[in-house]
Design goal:
The structure holds 2 protein chains of 2 kinds. By secondary structure, chain A is α+β, with helices and mostly antiparallel strands. In chain A, helix 2 crosses helix 3 and helix 5 packs parallel to helix 6. Chain B contains 11 helices and 2 strands. Chain B has one domain. Chain B has a two-stranded antiparallel sheet with strand order 1-2. Classes of the chains: A alpha+beta, B mainly alpha. Chains A and B meet through helix 1, helix 5 and helix 6 of A and helix 3, helix 7 and helix 11 of B.
């Protein structure tokens, strides 16, 4: 009888231990690490969003009817610069800028062999005092904004170079979209983009944002070694060799609980916020915007 | 109880399946060595950087600890549970099939202590198997691949979210911890097999049922359709054993899942004990 009682005791102790020691849910948003008294103008706010649609749609690129909602999210969150992916082309960019009341300047990269293109937006507040009076953050770039194509194999990424304030370092933001179907192509793409970022002026702060289509978190339960997993691992490791994954704690950014959208920033960047804007997607969008704020 | 334990241990050690499991694991290690060795050679002979500029797979990355980690990870979920289920599943049902169960039960020993001593022997066997496998991997790794630190990268084994490193001596301790966490995780499979061994007349049915249940939940737990059900599978909880191989061991997680596995083990054993105690043994 005592053996049975012992088993009951062990069973109850294990059950109790499992409940008491249950891990607390991880805090997804990290927005309290920087001293709030620091002037707001030294903080850089970046947003990346693949505004394309799920594979079940006949048109998987961005839908023009979704652009007002995209503009609303951008306006509400007031980022200094935005990286967008899966636009159809310049027409959609122009429309989006119009929905943004021309508060931003933008650029779409050449599509290359792809049927979709990436875009970068940067705040255009030169001489607009009315807006700053309404409490909006401004980018005093004095017209010193440079857009460029980042050649990456047979496709391109979009880049913008600007300054938040004239006394702050130059910022380079790359909007990138890696191949969704081939891990080897993703790896080659990541290498080219990182190498391009590394040759930027030394004092410039380079951020690479976008949909890398690679998922390397431990949520995947496949224990076996595959070439694709290995390529994605190498891509991520190469990016982390020179950059920090600023959205690491923000959680999943795509349907099926996948974290495939990233903002990589300089190792020295002091991160103050990383948040996936849940509920921002409209229509059949399969990604969520990732907002990252860093102290310069 | 001690006599019982001694007898059960003797029975186990004299069975062919005992040696078969060790031989099979040793063969797996040799196969892994061949695969790992040729892969490492291919990746470090200068041709590897033809297609891509960067790779972390350098000569220092491929070492005995990395080899042991890969080998243990690959085999743990799908190979070792087979031997554990085989041994545990044949404990009661095997005696019944051999016609010795009735004779054992008429001896002045309680059925509860009989079943528990059988389970303790299975637990000892499981620890022996896991520690032999880890030890053999480390030894083969040291002799044939070489020593170094354990570098971990996110992706292939899904062990870490960010690149990390465990220094050589610390890594050896981690493998030592893994021998305990691994054994504890496998005891859930052993407890299921013990229960089925009590329920079924035939050891083959008991082992097959255990493996069917284990593999079904293991596979289903890895399919995205069932992501919502995943937390309710014991196969999800038993995965905790690998946490000790992370650069920073998440101890609260380890204790939580160890507790959950404990609840499975003792709950299943209790059920097996209650059923076995009341069971009419007719042959």
């Amino acid at each position: 009888m005592w053996l049975k009682l012992l088993l009951v005791a062990f069973f109850l102790m294990s059950l109790l231990g499992a409940f008491v020691l249950a891990p607390k849910p991880q805090l997804r948003v990290n927005n309290n690490t920087v001293d709030a008294r620091r002037p707001d103008s030294r903080r850089l706010r970046l947003l990346t969003w693949n505004i394309g649609n799920g594979d079940l749609e006949s048109e998987t690129r961005a839908h023009t009817e979704d652009l007002p909602a995209v503009a609303r999210v951008i306006k509400d969150n007031d980022p200094d610069a935005v990286a967008l992916q899966e636009l159809t082309g310049e027409d959609q960019l122009r429309l989006l800028l119009a929905h943004l009341s021309n508060r931003y300047r933008g650029y779409v990269c050449s599509p290359g062999s792809a049927d979709r293109t990436d875009a970068v937006l940067v705040k255009d507040n030169s001489g607009d005092t009315a807006r700053t009076n309404r409490g909006r953050r401004r980018v005093d770039h004095d017209g010193d904004v440079r857009f460029s194509n980042v050649p990456a194999g047979d496709r391109f990424a979009a880049a913008v170079t600007f300054r938040l304030k004239t006394d702050l370092p130059q910022i380079v933001l790359v909007s990138a979209h890696a191949d969704a179907f081939s891990a080897a192509r993703r790896r080659a793409f990541a290498e080219v983009v990182v190498d391009w970022a590394r040759v930027q002026p030394r004092n410039a702060l380079v951020f690479i944002a976008g949909d890398f289509n690679l998922e390397v978190n431990t949520r995947n339960k496949n224990d076996l070694f595959t070439d694709d997993a290995k390529h994605d691992s190498e891509s991520y490791a190469y990016l982390l060799k020179y950059f920090r994954d600023l959205g690491r704690d923000a959680g999943e950014t795509s349907i099926n609980d996948r974290r495939i959208d990233y903002v990589f920033g300089p190792e020295t960047a002091s991160q103050s916020r990383a948040e996936v804007l849940r509920g921002a997607a409209v229509g059949r969008m399969d990604h969520l915007p990732l907002l990252v704020e860093v102290e310069l | 109880m001690f006599t019982q334990l001694r007898l059960e241990t003797l029975k186990l050690v004299r069975s062919k399946s005992f040696y078969l499991s060790f031989a099979a694991l040793a063969a797996f290690v040799l196969l892994m060595l061949w695969g790992f060795y040729s892969y490492a050679q291919q990746k470090t002979n200068g041709l590897a950087t033809e297609q891509f500029k960067y790779t972390y797979e350098s000569k220092s990355y491929f070492n005995g600890l990395t080899f042991a980690l890969y080998s243990v990870m690959f085999s743990f979920s799908l190979l070792i549970p087979i031997f554990v289920a085989m041994t545990a599943g044949s404990q009661i049902a095997g005696e019944r099939q051999a016609g010795t169960l009735r004779m054992i039960c008429v001896r002045p020993v309680s059925r509860v202590s009989l079943l528990l001593s059988k389970f303790l022997v299975v637990a000892f066997y499981t620890y022996l198997l896991v520690s032999f496998f880890i030890g053999l991997n480390l030894l083969v790794g040291l002799l044939f691949v070489g020593w170094g630190n354990l570098d971990l990268y996110p992706g292939p084994l899904n062990l870490v979210d960010a690149p990390g490193q465990i220094l050589r001596d610390e890594a050896l301790w981690r493998f030592f911890y893994a021998s305990f966490s691994g054994t504890w995780a496998l005891l859930v499979v052993a407890a299921i097999a013990m229960l089925f061994s009590v329920l079924f007349e035939n050891p083959v049915t008991a082992v097959a049922s255990t493996l069917a249940l284990y593999l079904m939940l293991y596979i289903v737990g890895r399919i995205e359709f069932f992501a919502a059900l995943r937390p309710f599978f014991f196969t999800t909880d038993v995965d905790f054993w690998r946490e000790v191989l992370k650069p920073e061991v998440p101890w609260p997680n380890v204790w939580h899942y160890a507790g959950t596995c404990g609840a499975y083990i003792f709950g299943l054993l209790l059920t097996a004990v209650v059923i076995f105690d009341r069971k009419d043994i007719t042959n």
